[in-house]
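Q: A reviewer asked whether we had any structural model of the full assembly, not just the individual parts. We don't, so I'm hoping you can provide one. Inputs are below.
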Amino acid sequence: MNEQRPIRAKSGANHEGTSAHNRRVIIDALRVNGALSRADLARATGLTKQAVSNLVETLENEGLIASEELVRKGRGQPSTPYRLVADGAYSIGLQIDRHVSRAIVVDLVGNILARATAEVPPRAPEEGIGVLLDLLADVRRDFAMNRPEAEARIAGIGVAMPGPFGVEIADDSLWLMQAWQSFPLVDRLAAGTGLAVSLQNDAAACATAERMVGAAHGLDHAVCIYVGYGIGAGLILGGELYSGAKGNAGEIGMVLFGQPENLVPLEHRASIASLYAMLDIEPADPQQFDKLERLVLEDDRRVGEWIERAGHDLRLAVHTAETLFDPQTVILSSGVPGSLMPRLIAAIEPLRPSLVPTAGRSVPRLRLGMTDPWAVAIGAAADPIRRAFDPSFSAILKRQGE
Amino acid sequence: MNEQRPIRAKSGANHEGTSAHNRRVIIDALRVNGALSRADLARATGLTKQAVSNLVETLENEGLIASEELVRKGRGQPSTPYRLVADGAYSIGLQIDRHVSRAIVVDLVGNILARATAEVPPRAPEEGIGVLLDLLADVRRDFAMNRPEAEARIAGIGVAMPGPFGVEIADDSLWLMQAWQSFPLVDRLAAGTGLAVSLQNDAAACATAERMVGAAHGLDHAVCIYVGYGIGAGLILGGELYSGAKGNAGEIGMVLFGQPENLVPLEHRASIASLYAMLDIEPADPQQFDKLERLVLEDDRRVGEWIERAGHDLRLAVHTAETLFDPQTVILSSGVPGSLMPRLIAAIEPLRPSLVPTAGRSVPRLRLGMTDPWAVAIGAAADPIRRAFDPSFSAILKRQGE
DNA sequence: TTATTAAGTCAAATTGCTTGACTTATTCGT
DNA sequence: ACGAATAAGTCAAGCAATTTGACTTAATAA
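A: Here is a predicted structure for the entire assembly that you could use as a starting point for your response.
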């Protein structure tokens, strides 16, 4: 037998894995439901009272959860609700965007504790890495100032940057960061900070944020379209972030729309880059959002045109996403604050009829998510927390690696 | 506290779950790799030799796996490879299509042991259920004839029918089975046969078949486009069949293509229904495939037109699927045998550049899968086996339910 | 005042993976 | 031809973590 090709198999599981999973399930239940007693947790997770009790005790000792006031609610012994402790863990988010980089520190429940920005040269990674490490050091120092023991509770650094990854793109016009593609960013950041570093694209980060603290809170099937300098979608499928075989799932900006003989990527018509190009706004301009907001409020003709065109294409993109993913909801998020995004939503609606049900919904088909320049950074920071504390198939297995 | 709304939480796990998972991992490893020794299994799954040994012993006693000849391959004690036993389990597949229904019995490795067809009235479920139960009884009797103990080893019945489910569709032209939508099919079949019954759409079934014995064997990320009377896609995401919030994920037939002012669903241009409409072939005609094949071989002008149009739309559909799902491969399957599908593939190619890598691939971007009228029935039959024996997140948890 | 209900604990039982030593069978080197 | 090295697989004890069932505690309802 020429048994030379590697054997492919999924990982087995053991007790440690189950226990780790159960921990995560409890943390997740507390995040989704607020505060729950041990008995509540036992019922909700299907575990026995005793198993929950043991896990709750451990989590309490670790400072991840804490009990609240006794609650009397009918007959029987009063229950002791438990709640996540915000200071149970911290996480650092780093967004590397085309014209600015942002670092942020959040706690376990998503409160923002520190932030800072820096300008990173988009075409010179070797130089940029120094800037990034300084930025991270800044924000870390700022955060740790009056929290002496907090350093040990940092779950890691989540990095988000525009995708796709590992792809040669002919059209460099919107894509200024080719140079970063081949740079060992994760390794260098890990070496420079001593923390675990993970990388994802900006849309995935945004989806993570929406799931942790935003419009997708508690949902297991959601498509989060992120309108940034580019445009992409983060996918929550079956309760987990889905990133595809090569980490590029959801790159809706590269989906082609328009006349069959003249197909253009969505990114050319519905990204902020395309809007700024029409408006002659410089993407590196610190005043960009103010300038834009003024034009939006003035009902600038070019802004109206863009909204109409982008809305038209996005209406179809939402329909396509609904049809292919069958989500509970579609969320439209953006790094642009102010009134642009509400107008865009208005231009997208009414949605086309699709296979998702319209009656009896608990969440709308399309919803506005965050509209905040820091949305991606927040999502990036949410990623290490997700990895450390959210239930997932891979977390249960012996050999990890998503 | 008005704690009235239900508590949402994921299910916990316990030892039984780990064990069940490890069983499935071993079965899966044997399916993907053919035959493996206990030591191989231990290395591949990350479990200890001992854990594997115990599981292998159990599986052997249950008749699901069996040892082969000793293999000497270098120093050390020779190894005993184990392999799946085809007769370890059986499964029944039932395809309910618009003009014919097919039942099939397969074994654990996908061999077909019996099959039969029947005509089911598409608009009269109450009458149709009798026909289906007779059909199932036929095929079951046929199969069990000379396998007296086999009845106990039937994992269940997998049913596949055209989707989407639970949707009111305005356009009834291609959709003749509205009446079945509100019919409690699964319950009635379960009651009438005494077996576990599961339901999925035909494209999902086809994807399941491709994964078990076809072009997606051993892959964890694949999109399987199924060209049947309608058209849909089955999604293998992260090693599992993905069906969305309401079971309708992958309904690519309803994705809109064409001129922006005249968008039409893919189904109108790339389904067999649309081809038959051009050719005046009656979908209920038993000779349909022969008639079609003759026209294809004659280079019939209308066939050429359809192939061109469908190929054009599918090229874009493949691009969209690649962009949104980032799969390892896209598979094109069909219920139509003969030379139509190879021609269609030829018309789709060359594929548009997309974000999936083109160089260094081990599988092509687009591949022809099954072209067999029985493909969906085989996939339907594969579903109970998948549920019973494939590793999945839900199988590890206390509370099941995909 | 007492029965009922529910939360939570205690301690033993059980399941199933892990550990480390051991046996067995084969090839390689001298 | 022989011993050393290597690898497969078994044995038996150890261990982690859930489960079980009885028990305690504390509240409300009748």
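A: Points you may want to mention in the reply: Chain B has a mean pLDDT of 92. The domain at 88-206+379-396 of chain B is CATH 3.30.420.40 (Nucleotidyltransferase; domain 5).
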